[in-house]
Amino acid sequence: MNEIAGESTVELVGTTDSERPFQEALSELFAGDGTIYVVSGYFTYQGYLSIRNDVVSFLERSRENKLVVIVGPASDQFSARIAHDLWGLDDCDRVRLYKQPRGLHAKLYLRDGPEPTCIIGSANITQVAFEYNVELGLEMTRAHSDHPDLKPFLEWAHDLVASSEPLRRRDLFGPVLVGSSFVNWSNKARLLPMRNVALRVGPVLLLLFFLAGLFRLV
């Protein structure tokens, strides 16, 4: 990362064809110590598998390391297999999973600790984002968490956790996940012209029920 007057500058991150791929930057986030906040609008199992070894190393390296994950609890947004695997890795309440009941579209990946780092941009934790989509984000590292460039993102993450609810095992039951998808799309439909609802949202709602099992696996 380039430096100006002793302070790190922002660096662009993108997909595999960029100079700094998003997956590489995300893996290096877990190479440091501290508390990591993961906010991903879509978090698929295949995307998780791509960084799982980094997550395991992060948790095993220091018992002071903690992971806070905020997801959208819907069948088309989050895979229940991720939650069960993370709970299996957690031996002393160092992994905390939260659900955001409103439509979650934000993407923020932040490590609070020595050399705190923030990644923000368009990419979710999905294989499609890692390898196919045209994604754009920025990565910045600062000397301390109170730096004015970094502090607003950390405060935002704290506020999001405060407005979220702990993710529980009953939230991962198939019909509950599908129901959350239905509620999300229904809320979005109220903001669209009726013609758009009929042409777009209606078929999507029907497909959600048909594909719910598939979405839980990817």
UniProtKB/TrEMBL annotation:
The name this protein goes by in its record:
NgoFVII family restriction endonuclease
Q: Does the keyword Hydrolase apply?
A: yes
What's in the keyword line of the UniProt record?
Endonuclease, Hydrolase, Membrane, Nuclease, Transmembrane, Transmembrane helix
Any GO MF annotation of the entry: endonuclease activity
SUPFAM superfamilies, per this entry?
A: Phospholipase D/nuclease (SSF56024)
UniProt cross-references to InterPro entries, sorted A to Z: PLD-like_dom (IPR025202), PLipase_D/transphosphatidylase (IPR001736)
Q: Domain (PLD phosphodiesterase): give its ranges.
A: 100-129
Positions of transmembrane segments: 197-215
Query: What species is this protein from?
Result: Natrarchaeobius chitinivorans
Q: What is the lineage of its organism?
A: Archaea, Methanobacteriati, Methanobacteriota, Stenosarchaea group, Halobacteria
Can you tell me which residues the record assigns to a coiled coil?
none
Q: Could you tell me the superkingdom of the organism this chain comes from?
A: Archaea
* Pfam families, per database record: PLDc_2
